[in-house]
Structure formats: C-alpha cells, structure tokens
Amino acid sequence: MPLSGEATTTRSRGQYSASKLLVSLILSFGLMYLDHKDQYLNKVRSYISATTYPIYVVTNAPKNIFLNLRETVGQKEKIILENQRLKTENIALSSKIQQIYKLEKENKRLHDLLDSKPKTEDIFVLAEIVAENPDPFKHRIIINKGSKENVHVKQTVADSRGIIGHVIRDQIFGSEVLLITDPEHAIPIEVARTGLRSIALGIGSYEEIQLSYLAVNTDIQAGDILLTSGLGGQYPVGYPVAIIDKVSAQKGESFLEVRAKPFAKLRNINEVWVIQRAADGAIDFE
C-alpha cells in the first residue's frame, strides 16, 4: 500500500509539470502571435527599457570612466611628446637661423673687405688679427703675416673702412701694427673739402683722434672728411682716415680743439689689408 501511494504522487507531479509546460508554451506562442500581428508588446518593451536604462548607465559608468581616463592620459602623453618634439625642432631651427645670420654677416664683412681694395696696381696682403696689446695706453695689434709674405716695417695697414695704422715690427710669421689712436702715433692728413693739411694725433682713445695747432679762424667743421695726404712718404695718398665730429674754441685760446672719429672700427678688427707698395695719387674706393 505505501508503494502504491508514492507512485500516485509521482504521477500527479509529472502531470502537473507537463501541464505547466504546456500552458507556458501556449502563452508564449500566443504572445508571439499577438506581437507579430498587432505590436501590442512594443509599449511594454519601451516601458521596460526606460526603467532599465538608468541601471545600465550606472553599471557601465566605471567602465566608461576608465576608458575616458585612459584616452585622456594617452592624449596628454601624446601632447607632451609632441611639445618636446616641437621644442627640439624650435631649438634646431633657431640654431640654424643664428648660423645663417652669422654666415650672412661674415659674408658681408668679407665682401666689404674685398670691395675696399683700391683700383690701382698696389699689392695688398690680407691678414688676420691674432692678438691685441693688453696695455690700455698702447694701441697695438699683432697680425698673422710677416716677412715671409713680404710684410715689412712702415707698410700701411687698412681695413674696409679706412686706415688702421702701420707696421712697426716684422717677424717671419707675424707683425706688430701701431694703430692711429695710439698716443705715439701721428699721421699727415688732408681735409677733403678744403685741401687743408694737418697732423692727426692719437690720444689713447679708440673712438677719436685729434688735430692740433689749427688757428681759431681755420675753415674746418664737423662732418669734414680727413684723408691721408701722403706727406712724409709714410702713408699713400687719398685713404680715408676719420671724420670731424667736434670743433670748438676756448675763450682766450689761439687754437681750435678739433676731434675726429676714425672710420676704421679699431675695437672690432678681424681682417686687414697690408699695403706692400703704394702708388702715387688718390685711391678710389668702390
């Protein structure tokens, strides 16, 4: 008897499960049919989607934040690398520009120096400055050309602008030049405008030389050009020396105070011409 009761219970449960499955299938097919025919479930799905969307957003927020953060970090690294690359390129370009400026300046300086060569048969030797006398009261320089290149004492030295001085000591591979601003230097000059002749003396300043013993009624004025007169045979005729920048007369004095600014940039000398054989007559600078 007990066995018969258990068997009955088992059959009842099986029949119930089968009934549930059958009902579920019928309902499913019914809902599918209704949805296909009349789209009744669209509103239901819309309501469900609207309800679950915030949950979807919240659950995916950490992932989205991580992805955005990773993208931001990646972009920042790219920007940093790009910035470093641009800085490196900028430094390189700036260096090249500076080199271009330097080369242009060097080319212009050499061009001016070559263009300053007088149109005569004189012989000129290009020389470089290798040293300057450290004594502030001795305006002298050493050039890298000497007796080996036929550079000798008393030869005139000039740059692209005008007279610098003359050789006072020559050696095999170098020579010493006395500048026109040295206190021991004197050069015969002529005022281009009037033909007045005088002696220009160095006074120990690289910026000016002095004309002495000119009477107060002498026709000389600021802006007058001083050229070598050729007197004494030390310097050839017609080279630019200086330009008058100050003429004054002290009350009760018999002579003018006349100062002139050398054409040559005596503080920034790089190359010079040594004139080995000066011809008579004026020198025509281009």
TrEMBL record:
GO terms for cellular component: plasma membrane. Keywords: Cell shape. Pfam families: MreC (PF04085). Residues 129-276 form the Rod shape-determining protein MreC beta-barrel core domain. Gene3D superfamilies: Rod shape-determining protein MreC, domain 1, Rod shape-determining protein MreC, domain 2. One of its GO terms (biological process) is regulation of cell shape. The keyword ATP-binding does not apply. Belongs to the MreC family. This is Cell shape-determining protein MreC. It comes from marine metagenome.
